[in-house]
Amino acid sequence: MLEDWQKERRDFLQSLSRISSLPKTNIVDTSTGVTRQISSLASSPHASSGSSGFEIVPLANKSFVEKKASAYAEVVKNLNCAREHGSQFKPATAFKGAYESLGVGVLGGKSVNMQKIWHLVQTLVGENTTMRQSISRKMSLVIGARHHLEWGHEKYIMDTIQNHPAQAALGGAVGNLQRVRAFLRIRLRDYGVLDFDAGDTHRQPPVDTTWQQIYFCLRTGYYEEARTVSLSSRASLQFAPMLMEWINSGGMVPVDIAAAASEECEKMLRMGDRVGRAAYDKKKLLLYAVVSGCRRQIDRLLRDHPTLFSTIEDFLWFKLSAARDYPAGTSTMVLNESLIPYSVEDLQAYLNKFEPSYYTKNGKDPLVYPYVLLLSVQMLPAILYLSREPAGEGFDIDAVHISIALSDHGILTEGAGAGPKLGVMDAYAEASSIIRQYGSAYLHHGNISMALEYYAQAAATVGGGEISWTGRGNIDQQRQRSLMLKQLLTELLLRDGGIYLLLGSRGAGEEGELARFFIDFKERQQYLLEVAHRCQEAGLDEKSIEIQKRVGAFSMALDTINKSLSEAICALSRGRLDGESQTAGLINSGNEILETFKYYPDFSFQERDLVLEQETVLRQLEAILSVHKMARLGHFLDALRELAKLPFLPLDPRVPDITVDALRNLSPRVQDCVPDLLKVALTCLDNVTDSDGSLRAMRAKISQFIANNMNLNWPRDLYEKVCFSIDGCFRCISLRAAEAACRR
């Protein structure tokens, strides 16, 4: 029994010796360690991440960018529609499909293209996989990044087998384990018979590939096959339960298993320290390090074996497989300092030591850096980098839609990256700003409907993504979304065509796009009234009137018209040339509102009374306007006759004097027009001959009226004009009033 065990051990060590002498491709300078490993990112067609990436077909940049923007825009519309109706939608998958629909060809020269990045985003958010509910959001992102790398390695294995069919000897077998073994036949073709191909093991000791099989099964995402191999080989029986726990827990193994794996790593590393005793498979050491998740063991492994990984994909897969996400301050997860777990933040800090140009080879491979950022769960830095990328291939457009996909899943705060941490709202605000800015470009080019779709996404982003559409976000997120949505919709309403788009051809938005965002009529009405008020403050009276009319606020619309009409009459009296056309339009609008109100089905008695009051004001202003028009045409006598007919001013010389304050019950809109009206009246009196004394009586009326309202501080030129109009026939009180007015 002892002799058999010694023979088996000797054969095993011999097989390891043969594996360790395999020819290595992409060997890096050992003096620079993993730093040089990163620089070899998939530049070789033999890289384990697969063959060279895709590139854009040689179309004119402008044409391709326009096609890409159009394809993405259609997805955004579909996404918004799905979220409004509560139906399922996978944004990353849809954006990826939109990009692929452009017919991008396969070219060499660059290792990462946007198609590859979209697959990574799709896998990160778990749209093409099923994630465990028990793990944290950050760990699900880590697992998603790992699955993407495994997908790439599977493509590489299949390409390798297809390029070497004779050596692969796959035959009719199509199972995952058979593919890995076919790949190993090619990889280990110079090292004799492999154990899974050996018929009689006593004739010639075969090469033991247990750890190679387990590693490449895991590296390719064949977890069940890795479990099968570990259970079927005597060399890996001790490792099998650890591996099963790592697979079942999504990498979050219990502390005792992590400690046992770390101890095994320690033994192998000590064995390697002895001269001539490097008789262990490095893949075995790597796998135990993955299960242990121990920062110290991982750092030592990479320090002692800087050439262990030939591509950054292999390096990142190892780091992501070993990463853990334990809550801060969880002391039970760390038995002692030697078992401090390796974290995603550790990986991010290491990768961020190097400048972007280091990854992109000074811009020759521009998408490598954002690809590395996304793989290391640094979502926001990747988006910001792409949005600033000056290349002419429209990467800023891709950045906008990547941010939409990630924001919809609500994972931006999990991927803020290493360094100073952004707050929850800061991260979402950054992404929202990018989306909003992109939407405003559509607005500036006159495509207001498409701007609306992106504005809706910008508001949803600050609200937390998909949850904002159903109101499941926290209070702060809901408030931020509501504020931004109202702000952006207001911006659209004030644009040409904005009212028609959002409110439709009639009504308060029931037939327009506004009903998508404000389902409740009262909420929609309140919002529109707020917008109308803001329009008034900004001097946009026409917009304000139209909005007020749409929501059934007829009295408010008439008040706005009366205010504008009062200002226009004052401007007309001061000689502004366009005042007459403006006043005609305002009166016409007022009459239309009154006509619409007659047939409006839903109004209160209070609203009816308010409308009647505003109608009275409108007619009073219209009468004042007619006096101004006659005076401007030189029809002074007719103007004075109309002035005497005004029932709201005591200027008719045939009517006895009334001591009651006539201005008290007048609207402020009418009161504002009285001083200019009196000046016009005095001008008319100066240009008409008094044949019967009635004009002299009207002068007295005007003088008395001004004297009775000295407290109103009317314009000085009115008082001066009264002084010049006084003659000896006036009564003493009129003279004193006029003189006092002049002194004022």
UniProtKB/TrEMBL annotation:
Single GO cellular component annotation?
nuclear pore
What InterPro entries is this protein classified in?
A: Nucleoporin_int_Nup93/Nic96
Q: Name one GO biological process term.
A: poly(A)+ mRNA export from nucleus
Using the UniProt record, give the first listed, main subcellular location: nucleus
Q: Respond yes or no to whether keyword Protein transport is given for this record.
A: yes
- Pfam families noted in UniProt: Nic96
Q: Which controlled-vocabulary keywords does the entry list?
A: Membrane, mRNA transport, Nuclear pore complex, Nucleus, Protein transport, Translocation, Transport
Location within or outside the cell: Nucleus envelope; Nucleus, Nuclear pore complex
Q: Name one GO molecular function term.
A: structural constituent of nuclear pore
Q: Which family does it belong to?
A: Belongs to the nucleoporin interacting component (NIC) family.
Specify the protein name: Nuclear pore protein
